[in-house]
Amino acid sequence: MYKSLVLLMLLFQTILSSAQVKKVKNINYAGNTNEANTLNIFYKNDSIKNKPVLIFIHGGSWSSGKKETYWWLGRNFARKGVVTVIINYPLAPNVQYEKMGDDCALAVKWVQEHIADYAASPEKIFVMGHSAGAHLGELINADPKYFKKAEIKNPIKGVILSDPFGLDMQEYLTTAEKDHFYFDFIRTFTDQPAVWKVASPLDYVNNIKNPHLLFYGSKTYGAIKLQTPRLYEKLKANHVSVEIKEIKGKSHVPMISQMIFGGNQLYKDIVEFIQKTSS
């Protein structure tokens, strides 16, 4: 009887917490009518103001993925007091990486200008990405041309990268097998090694000043296991605040899908990072 009562109370608490999370869908951040330039916002309906805001950029090899897939990420972070923005951006083959970066920067600009309407602070903007989304998040953070084109200063307080792919696209595409992945990436990054270099966030590491939290899986792709620690070492050498965590037993997709569950350890790590960096 007691066990059943406890389970019922926990279920009620879960339903109540979910009910407190508000969702605003399909806001266009680029002043057009393109679905590729829309975002969803998740926030807790309470009296707390000036919350931190997390902008999530999804992965999908720069050619697939959509914001709707990650509703659970928005809900879980919102329940933990972090206003969360999940964005779409245009994908290959319609555009190449530079246009994706431009539009991600526009999404950040929109958040900076409007997020106060959702009880969050424009001074506490964090960017998180998985896989190709992590590449784009770090690219707009490290290469100043993206925010310059958006006509704002870089407002990103901190960066969270989950299994980032393509931190050094030049290295990867130079050494990669010529398989279907390679030719898929060529659509996004052209067949020009000079472009691969310009598209590599590691090429701009000396511009990075904001704190970083890096995750990678112990069973992920070799390039990620090589380049993520390299980013860590370079940031550390530059005296930038950075933490790195290898997640045991996880391959590439499970590095983000594990966060479907709100009790996943990565939430604790990320929320602590956000709170520490915001203070």
UniProtKB/TrEMBL annotation:
InterPro entries: AB_hydrolase_fold (IPR029058), BD-FAE-like_dom (IPR049492), GDXG_lipolytic_enzyme (IPR050300). The keyword Hydrolase applies. Gene3D superfamilies: alpha/beta hydrolase. Residues 39-234 form the BD-FAE-like domain. Keywords: Hydrolase, Signal. One of its GO terms (molecular function) is hydrolase activity. Residues 1-19 form the signal peptide. It comes from the Bacteria. This is Alpha/beta hydrolase.
